[in-house]
Amino acid sequence: MAKKEWHIYGTVFSNPVAIDGVNIVRIDLTDYKEMKRMFKEIRPDAVIHTAAAADPNYCQTHKEESHKINVDASINLAGLCSDLKIPCVFTSTDLVFNGLHAPYREEDKVCPVNIYGEQKALAEEKILERYPGAAVCRMALMFGMPGPASESFIQPMLRDMREGKGVRLFIDEFRNPISAETAVMGIFMALKKVSGIIHLGGIERVSRYEFGKLLADVFSISNAQLISCRQADFIMAAPRSPDVTLDSSKAYALGFRPLTLRKELTRLAKGSKAG
User: Fold this and answer.
1) Around 81, how many Cα atoms within 13 Å sit in the side-chain half-sphere?
2) Domain coordinates of the chain in residue numbers?
3) Is the domain 2-151+178-204+244-259 a CATH 3.40.50.720 member?
4) Which residue in 83, 1, 5 sits closest to 40, CA to CA?
5) Span 69-123, pLDDT tens digits
6) CB neighbours of 112 closer than 8 A, spacing ≥ 6?
7) pTM to 2 decimals?
8) What is the dihedral of CA 203, 208, 211, 215, to 10 degrees?
9) Which pLDDT tens digit goes with each residue over 12-42?
10) Number of C-alpha atoms within 13 angstroms, CB side, residue 106?
11) How many Cα atoms within 13 Å fall on the side-chain side of residue 87?
């Protein structure tokens, strides 16, 4: 979609990749001088900033390292976009909320329960202070095809299901997931139409366990061994929010159109077979 309208540049750091039609630039986004040099050389017309240390458990145990990319680099990048007065999208997270008062609207007060959520909430605030015209997209849980350097969370689940391994899934943790393909459409909509905060979530609120049942059904895995469990059954470095369902009615009014989860997963299943 984007390749028809733009010359695309993508940045990488530790995982070199090749993507058809994309100019890959290797850069450390935590190095402000490098970022300034990149902006001077490329002179971008718009920027979508998705890079992050996005594992809450990693952020909880590596606060300084994750702060550099999740907060410092994000603010610096927004500042460079502000200097050029170009559209800028920053992808945030539903985990800026504590999960006690869902569904959450854009105007609701942030109240994260872990370091990752705190970092994203701080980045949101500072980005909009530095560049009020930036778009901050709070993303729901996303799933999709594996990328050149990483997997979606569903690939390990599918492997374990097909091998008949027990897959433990929370019955008391709720999200409104969207596919990566749908998320991209929402991000490009925000690039063109949004200043400030917008929520990009799906139309269905489901628990992790309910999502796993639907995943097994769509991918026709009859021997899937799904085990229901609760958040309290596991001790993890980062505390988890019970329900961070996003109210995305503002995005829907602007033309954001997620499909039902069954349709999203069916499209994904067909794509994986074609690949």
Assistant:
1) 26
2) 2-151+178-204+244-259
3) yes
4) 83
5) 999 999 999 999 999 999 999 999 999 999 999 999 999 999 999 999 999 999 9
6) 95, 96, 97, 98, 118, 120, 121, 241
7) 0.95
8) 140
9) 988 778 888 889 999 999 999 999 999 999 9
10) 20
11) 14
